[in-house]
Give the backbone structure.
Amino acid sequence: MIKHVIFDFDGTIVESRYLTVELLNELAPKYRLREIKEDEYEYLRSLSIPQRCRAINLPFYKLPLLKHELTQKYRRATRSLQANKGMKEVLQQLKAKGLALSIISSNSANNIKDFLDHNNINLFDNIISSGGIFGKDKAIGVFLARHSLSSSEVIYVGDECRDIVACRKNNIGVIAVTWGYDAEELLADCGPDLLAQNPSEICDFILCQM
C-alpha cells in the first residue's frame, strides 16, 4: 500500500525547461557550446542525455561542472518560475488523503525551498538534493532506509528516463509525466508504471493503491 510519494522537481512540479535552455545559452561561450535555438526544443527532448550533450558540443566529462554552475544561476530566477498547471492541486489532494510527500531532485534544496515558499506550496515532509545528475538511485536508497520504508510503500513521480532507471534500481513504482524534460516516446521506452498525460492521472493512479 502506498504511504509515501516522492516527486522530482524540475519538469515535474515546476516548468523550468525554458529557463534551463536560457541559462545554457548564457553559458555557451564559456563552455564553447552550440547555442540552442527555440525550434530545437522538442527535438532535444527526444534525445538521451549523452545525445543532448553531443548535440550542443558538450563533452560528457564537463557535465558535472556545468550542472553546478547552472544550479547556482538558477537561484536568481526561482521566483519567476511557475508550477505546472494542476500540480499544486494534485499535491494538495494527495496530502489531504494522508500521504507523506517528499522531493528528491538533482537541483539544490535551497532552490527548491525558495520556489515552494514563494508559491505557498508548504506540503512536503522532506526536500532532498541528490547532488549529481546520476545520483538519484543512491539518494532514493538512502531515503528508504532512513525512513524504514519498504519498496511497496513508495512511488516516485518524475519526468525523465533517469528517474525511471533510479526507481527500478530500488524496486519502487514510478509514474512518468509527459510535460517535462523527456519526450513521451523516450519515457515510454523506459517502461514506467504509468505514463501520465495530465496531473489528475497521478492522483487517480496513486489513490487506487492506498
About this structure: The two ends are 5 Å apart (CA to CA). The chain has two domains: 4-15+83-207, 17-79.
